[in-house]
């Protein structure tokens, strides 16, 4: 089996960045981009749907293996490669990491990314304007998600105690993008533990190549 992997997806995607973070944390060599086996993969094309039945990213290519869905990919990377453990050995603690990975990839992603952040990145108002009513409607969900994340951070530096885990790799890109929005400043100010948590995540060496300014020019190619 190959010692390296390829991540299908654009680097600006929060979920692609989560997989990238896991590779960086474990020292797994990787490439990434919208291609597979040297051939371009257009979003929702037949080639894309052959890799993911619902046309989502990321998709992990490891030799002849194909794997979709971020929590599953991150767990696989942790189990299949040497390097720092991204999941606890204890069954209960591991289940808690799985719980947070599911909550983040589902509910928190919907609140922070799909309903809020994307309105600023890809505004759908008239003339390409941000829809202020959509932003206002999304803010309570963002506040609730941050409140949910505050609670476990009272017990340790990361979402499950003192170990950086798969769950933290999923949380980091979402929170990093959120902190880059002026509109979110007041929301984050009400969640001081989340703010401190994000600074810890960004200070990790693995974040240097991942939590970077997004290149959205790929969308016009």
UniProtKB/TrEMBL annotation:
Keywords: Transferase. InterPro entries: Glutathione-S-Trfase_C-like, Glutathione-S-Trfase_C_sf, Glutathione_S-Trfase, Glutathione_S-Trfase_N, GST_C, Thioredoxin-like_sf. The keyword Transferase applies. It is an enzyme of class 2 (transferase). Residues 3-85 form the GST N-terminal domain. Residues 90-221 form the GST C-terminal domain. Its EC number is 2.5.1.18. The keyword Nucleotide-binding does not apply. This is glutathione transferase. The lineage of its organism: Bacteria, Pseudomonadati, Pseudomonadota, Gammaproteobacteria, Oceanospirillales.
